[in-house]
Amino acid sequence: MTDKLAQVEKSEIMDQDTEQTRDRRVFSPFTDIYETDQEILLLIDLPGVEEEDIDITLEKDILSINATVESEQLEGNSLSYAEYAIGDFHRKFRLTKMVDQESIAALLTDGVLKITLSKTSLSQTKKITVQSR
Amino acid sequence: MYRKVQPNYIWQEMDRLQHEMNRLNGMFRPQRQASAQSFPAINLWSNEESAVATVEIPGVKIDDLEIMITGETLTLKGSREPNSLAENAVPHRQERGCGQFIRSIKLPFLVESEKVEATLKKGVLNIQLPRANNDKPRKITVNALG
Questions:
Q1: Which residue in A35, A85, B88, B90 is a FRET match for B112, CA 20 to 30 A apart?
Q2: Between chains, do A77 and B100 touch, taking CB under 8 Å as contact?
Q3: Distance of alpha carbon B85 from its chain centroid, rounded?
Q4: What is the pLDDT of residues B28-53, one digit of tens each?
Q5: How far apart are alpha carbons A109 and B125 in whole angstroms?
Q6: Cβ pairs A/B, distance under 8 A
């Protein structure tokens, strides 16, 4: 039953090319990538992240996602059992297809970020009909 | 005389070795960090009066979630629906699991099940678990005689 949900532990980024200035662990969020004729869709798990704390940038063909999470410190309580750690999220994607830089839409629902990238007309799949004489 | 070698014996041995390596790797983990047995991962905060369970469940709708309390056990049951995308969407990468899940954890004390409150915000579930009155430690006053 849980085989599809087997991956439970967030994968921590250990070797970073740039160092953190915040004293915080950094995780690579679980992501689904789908492609349709017109769009590339990214679904990224960002539990506990507020909209304003997500930073999405596209530089050339690198799409980077940075999200900061406020630490979960409950006043007057002590953490008696822990299965997950709180940390920021960071991940980069190299876009293989040309996307329209102007029309990138991002929507956050229930802790899942959905990024819609429209393909430029150049990279859209064109169907060529073969004509017969 | 030759001993008959089981064909899958070597694989069993590899599995055992892998398991052992994982166990050894786990030794370097911070001690408080347990690894979740299955989805979703739960953190439990507590004090004398109450406990709070926080659960990371991004993408789970509130209607697809069931929270149950039996004695000192908290059970979470639910499902994460697969994404309803266009039929012609080609998956390139699927790391986010979907499907049903059920998990139970043992709480440090009995809770007032009537007063349990849960909120779901930004993919994080927060369950407030007040301690049952009859489970709270009772202070006994000592009467001095004479």
A1: A85
A2: no
A3: 29
A4: 554 455 566 678 899 999 888 899 99
A5: 14
A6: 158
